[in-house]
Write a structure and sequence with these properties.
This protein is mainly alpha-helical. It is 62% helix and 0% strand. The chain has a domain of 88 residues. Helix 3 packs across helix 6. It is found in: Endomembrane system.
C-alpha cells in the first residue's frame, strides 16, 4: 500500500500551498500573537500547538504541512465563519477545522510535538491555584 502523503501534488494543490505559505514568517508571527492572547481561553490550545510544531518540523511531509498550515491559517486570520469575539461559539469553527485537519494527519503529529506543545503552553498560561 502506498503512502498517500508521498504522491505528487496537483497544480491546484501547488497553487494552494504557494498561497498559504507565501508569507510563512508572517503567518508564524500572527500565530504566536493570537495564541498568546487566547491560549488560556481555548480548550484546543495544546492540539493547535502540536499541529504548529508538526507543520514547522522539517521531517514532516509536505502534504501534511499543507493541511496543518491551512488549519493554522484559518485560526490566525480574522475573517472566518464565526467571529472569535462571540462568547463560547467564537472559536468553535476554528476547533472544528483543526480537528478535521488533525484527523487527516494524526499519525504525523508525534509525541515530541505534543510534549513541546505542553511545555510551551505551560509557559504561555499562568498556573491556576
Amino acid at each position: 500500500m502506498s503512502d498517500p502523503f508521498i504522491k505528487p501534488f496537483t497544480k491546484a494543490e501547488m497553487d494552494a500551498m504557494r498561497s498559504a505559505t507565501r508569507d510563512e514568517e508572517g503567518l508564524k508571527r500572527r500565530f504566536w500573537e493570537k495564541l498568546k492572547r487566547v491560549a488560556g481561553k481555548i480548550p484546543f490550545a495544546e492540539d493547535l500547538l502540536a499541529a504548529f510544531y508538526c507543520a514547522t518540523d522539517a521531517k514532516t511531509p509536505s502534504r501534511v504541512k499543507l493541511i496543518l498550515l491551512g488549519a493554522i491559517a484559518y485560526f490566525v486570520f480574522p475573517m472566518d465563519a464565526v467571529s472569535d469575539f462571540l462568547p463560547l461559539l467564537g472559536f468553535a469553527d476554528d476547533a472544528a477545522v483543526l480537528a478535521a485537519a488533525i484527523t487527516q494527519v494524526a499519525g504525523s503529529i508525534t509525541e515530541d510535538h505534543r510534549l513541546k506543545a505542553r511545555e510551551t503552553l505551560g509557559q504561555l498560561t499562568p498556573e491556576q491555584p
